Amino acid sequence: MKLFFYHTPEAVPPDGSPNLAIAIDVLRATTTIATLLAAGAEAVQVFSDLEALTHTRESWAPKPGLRIGERGGQKVAGFDLGNSPLDCTAERVANCRIFMSTTNGTRALQRIQDTPIVLAAALINRLAVVQYLHQHQPETVWMVGSGWEGSFSLEDTVCAGAILDSLLAMEQQPLKNLAGNDEAVAALALFQSYQHNLLSLLEQASHGQRLLHLQLDNDLKYCAQTDVLDILPIQREAGILVSWSLRSSNPKQTGSGQI
Ligand code: 3SL
């Protein structure tokens, strides 16, 4: 197995074909997706375009559904929820199809949606991702950071490093066997420097500061935790993520598509 890390969707090679790709948006889209599925959402369907999202949600009615929309860190006017994982309680989201659009995270998912297996990772579900990699041994893995509007982000890089760090321990392999590019090695070094102080790194990050200006301190605290959710969001069909059960090696949701 070789893991490659790309800082942004734009950095992904145009003609590569990994066996598995992982979207990372610690602040906050993939953290929110894992939390939604942990709270019992039926599935999360991602969109870059708000109009397409609203149209799809309307055709989903009368089944239960919620629209999550974020632009500039804030809830899109008229939507049910913004992108705060702290709003994703079971009371609100259980059994609902979630229609979601965010500035960067949903774009990263769309960039890799043609890969045979697509996962969503954050710090909170890092171990679930690593266990899946260990069980399935994909040959080539791309980890794709969402960044911010095409630029590098500290929080997605540290999460890629956290995945590699935990996988190295589980596989009992030297770094040179698992790291596919220099970005992966640098991500590991960042994680190893900050692993005991992830919250301070998120507070230092430019997007962390943007969220702090919006008084979202508790969101940062939540997103900085590692391995607190045993949930693995996996793509069931293009743009639709459901929860994978590691224990049964099966998707928990029943759906029409094959994973
Ligand atoms: O860019 C994104 O996809 C969002 O996660 C950004 S925010 O944390 O909701 O501001």
UniProtKB/TrEMBL annotation:
<dbReference type="GO" id="GO:0050532">
    <property type="term" value="F:2-phosphosulfolactate phosphatase activity"/>
</dbReference>
<comment type="similarity">
    <text>Belongs to the ComB family.</text>
</comment>
<dbReference type="GO" id="GO:0050545">
    <property type="term" value="F:sulfopyruvate decarboxylase activity"/>
</dbReference>
<dbReference type="Pfam" id="PF04029">
    <property type="entry name" value="2-ph_phosp"/>
</dbReference>
<keyword id="KW-0378">Hydrolase</keyword>
<keyword id="KW-0460">Magnesium</keyword>
<dbReference type="InterPro" id="IPR036702">
    <property type="entry name" value="ComB-like_sf"/>
</dbReference>
<protein>
    <recommendedName>
        <fullName>Probable 2-phosphosulfolactate phosphatase</fullName>
        <ecNumber>3.1.3.71</ecNumber>
    </recommendedName>
</protein>
<dbReference type="GO" id="GO:0000287">
    <property type="term" value="F:magnesium ion binding"/>
</dbReference>
<dbReference type="InterPro" id="IPR005238">
    <property type="entry name" value="ComB-like"/>
</dbReference>
